[in-house]
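Batch manifest line 331
LIGAND: flavin mononucleotide
JOB: complex structure
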Amino acid sequence: MEDRKRDHIDLAFSSKLDGKYVDKRFDYEPLFGTHEQQEQSYTFLGKKMQMPLWVSSMTGGTKRAGTINKNLAQACAEFGLGMGLGSCRILLDSPEHFNDFNVRPIMGDEAPLLANIGICQLEAMLEDQSTDKLGELVEKLDADGLIIHINPLQEAFQPEGDIIKRPAIELLQDFLERTSLKLVVKEVGQGFGQNSLRQLLQLPIEAIEFSAMGGTNFSLVELNRSNAISAEVFNPFIHVGHTAEDMTRMVNQLVDELPEEQLKVKQLIISGGISNLLDGYYLTSISKIPAIYGMGSAFLRHAMGDYEKLQIYIETLKDGWHLANNFLKVK
Ligand SMILES: Cc1cc2nc3c(=O)[nH]c(=O)nc-3n(C[C@H](O)[C@H](O)[C@H](O)COP(=O)(O)O)c2cc1C
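JOB STATUS: finished
ARTIFACT:
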């Protein structure tokens, strides 16, 4: 007690805010909530989650990635989260990496899990009529479906990048005619503009994951791996894109505009640049389509070492979510 009081006196002067920045998105209502944590449940891909929190697709195919994936999968099991695997392309050619991706035994059956493949690989498989391999991949991983990431800028800036020959929307439409897999479509860090969102919302897919601009940007990752001329010439592209907040508002507007029978997408994963839980809380609250929020790099930072570090991080996110639910009202 005495220590605590001494800390208060020592820290009071360094804990002053000037009041210039106030988060205007919420009303703070301290009168009505409690610290009791009510069990909550959210549904995604027909499965139950305890928090509306998604682990955005990250890496696989290296020893380090195996550890990261296992930590993330364990957290999904413990906290009732869902997870997208990083690109599983390597598994199609080199099955020896299967163990790095084989997270279902760790996650358990309850947690939603999605495999992941790029639009360029989908195009190649549509061309040689081998899309059945994607069904086999999902089955082998015991996943609930497949994420297709659309990344034309990343591919263009990647020294060893692939080429897209037909527009992604056509490839998705073709694939949807041939598959019964549950699909989610995402970007990789620059989001989707209004017309792309309009088209995606009308596809019979399970969800759109924004992977919006404002956090990890894969075009920039590739430019950092690229030669000096490409880095200089292509650099302006990395500043183009849509933030998660802009995209949430665009989707809300499209939901109002589109006739009900044309609106096929029933869920969103609001991700990309979501670095704090209040952003997730705010955007999922204002979304007119049921939404969970997703994070990539924020999880990665805590998932590279011992599981306990990640566990403490998510436990704290969970506490924060309950505090927001109990004491903050979205304006
Ligand atoms: C190390 C790393 C690897 C990633 N690999 C993939 C991938 O294989 N497939 C994919 O769809 N997205 C991939 N992403 C993109 C993330 O899924 C996410 O969309 C992006 O990081 C933006 O979210 P953030 O700002 O919360 O990091 C990767 C991200 C990171 C940080």
